[in-house]
Known about the structure:
Helix content: 25-40%
Largest sheet: 3 strands, parallel
Radius of gyration: 16 Å
Strand order of the largest sheet: 1-2-3
Number of helices: 3
Distance between the termini: 36 Å
Shape: elongated
Amino acid sequence: xxxxxxxxxTADHHFEWAKxxxxxxxxxxxxxxxxxxxxxxxxxxxLARQNNTFLMEGMWTRCFPxxxxxxxxxxxxxxxxIVYCQGD
Length: 88
């Protein structure tokens, strides 16, 4: 039994492997960029929706505890009105 398929190949292979994973009904996480073409990304999203299958781009920093805490601080208004933010 497979819980999730994580695709971390070179970007030029993301679409083909993600599509196969979704066609197999497997929850799929694709390292960024999800694909190299917008049309391919839209196709994967449509396929995931049709099959009611989880699909996510691998934005690993989103799951960091520090990012969760930052979202709490922002939501509480502790930093005031945020006008601009950039992260690299």
